[in-house]
Amino acid sequence: MSDHESTYVPKTGVEKWLDSRLPIVRFGADYMSLPTPKNLNYWWTFGGILALCLVTQIATGIVLAMHYVPNTELAFASVERIMRDVNSGDLIRYTHANGASMFFVAVYLHMLRGLYYGSYKAPREMIWIVGCVIFFLMIATAFLGYVLPWGQMSYWGAEVITNLIGAIPLIGEPILIWLRGGPAIDNATLNRFFSLHYLLPFVIAGCVVLHLWALHHAGQGNPVGILIPKDREKKDMVPFHPYFTVKDGFAVILFLILFALFVFFMPNALGHADNYIPANPLQTPAHIVPEWYMLPFYAILRAIPDKFGGVVAMFGSIGVLFILPWLDTSKVRSMRYRPTMRTFFIIFVLVGMGLGWCGAQLPDAPVVGSFKTFILIDGDLNSYLWLTRLFTAYYFAFFLIILPVVGLKETPLAIPATISEPVLSGGDAMTAAAAASAEKKG
């Protein structure tokens, strides 16, 4: 794909002048005509959806920043003023707040697709790694933004998370003082968080450019997971436009319907009611929880009894994603042809959802229903904490044990010789060993 020759021909004098100095029109035209595997399914549409989410967050964020006051005495009131007095302020704020949730819905599905179809395998390691950097920056940006309304959950969430940094030996305390701007969360903290929250989306946009650059250099993956040789490009690939622009456009419309459902009919469904109470350092909420998209990592943090150990586990749960390309030992990319690994993957998805659910519960709350029957051994185990630890153990085992071991031991199904041929038990289908040999030669 990196060898794709440009087909763009400037037609007017202005186009020729611009093309000879800044070929931005050529770049767009070449992107539209880029050869793309013709078997891509709707799981490949989330890249475009994520780009839309990023643009939406930046545009609405800039407008909100024009009216927001980063001062502990005025921040909460400024948010309420945006909702009441600024033209369409409630719509802009609800779009921004729910847009963060939609952003994470899309990115989680995008990453799970990459995990299922082996999109992180050579030669696409850098695509995956840059994507993990974007994911980490998204988490940081979302946390900083959650503090800005300066409600009860904003303040106490910042208190809990920043205190975790102080648990790091030697360097934790200096970093904590720098991040807060002093020994406690105050006006300097809010100013720092506002500045970083405004800056990081543009850093994410820069990383997205690197992500696309790496994608164009290494080439687009496909559900079958085989490399497409040069002599098969005409048969196995089609131009990105109009085939996939139409497909992506349809997926974007469906996504926008879901987005609009939250913005117009239940704008506060994904938030916490306590954040509509002004921050009070003297009154701790009954239950401090982050936004839903951070709950799995919050659950992992609480699963470890030691404070520093919990911090290591939480950051390790993200860090392990960066080394994923070297943990998977299978020669076959797509789990479509790895039934054993597919079973473990389904369990992994359920465990991730379970971690999110556990993260929303009180750690010492009693286990009820079927979970009580499943995990209750004696009175000491009657809490969600033990279920969280079980899920946390599987999360890390999936990456560090299951992926390497199953990749060496399993016998994959036969995969087709090309993406244009159906998967059959014989005929044109070839064994996994032959596929691996073909990939090495490719």
TrEMBL record:
A Pfam family annotated for this UniProt entry: Cytochrome_B
Membrane disposition: Multi-pass membrane protein
Positions contributing to heme b b566 binding: H110, H211
Domain Cytochrome b/b6 C-terminal region profile: 230-417
Alphabetized UniProt keyword annotations: Electron transport, Heme, Iron, Membrane, Metal-binding, Respiratory chain, Transmembrane, Transmembrane helix, Transport
InterPro entries hit by this protein: Cyt_b/b6_C (IPR005798), Cyt_b/b6_C_sf (IPR036150), Cyt_b/b6_N (IPR005797), Cytb/b6-like_sf (IPR027387), Cytochrome_b (IPR030689), Cytochrome_b_C_euk/bac (IPR048260), Cytochrome_b_N_euk/bac (IPR048259), Di-haem_cyt_TM (IPR016174)
GO BP terms: respiratory electron transport chain
Residue intervals of the Cytochrome b/b6 N-terminal region profile domain: 14-224
Transmembrane portions of the chain: 42-70, 91-111, 126-148, 160-179, 199-219, 240-266, 308-327, 339-363, 383-406
Compartments reported by the entry: Membrane
A GO term from the CC aspect: respiratory chain complex III
Residue sites binding a ubiquinone per the record: H216
UniProt entry tagged with the keyword Metal-binding: yes
Positions of heme b b562 binding: H96, H197
Major subcellular location class: membrane
Subunit structure: The main subunits of complex b-c1 are: cytochrome b, cytochrome c1 and the Rieske protein.
PANTHER family named in the record: CYTOCHROME B (PTHR19271)
Record-stated family: Belongs to the cytochrome b family.
Function: Component of the ubiquinol-cytochrome c reductase complex (complex III or cytochrome b-c1 complex), which is a respiratory chain that generates an electrochemical potential coupled to ATP synthesis.
Designated name of the protein: Cytochrome b
Organism, scientific name: Brevundimonas lenta
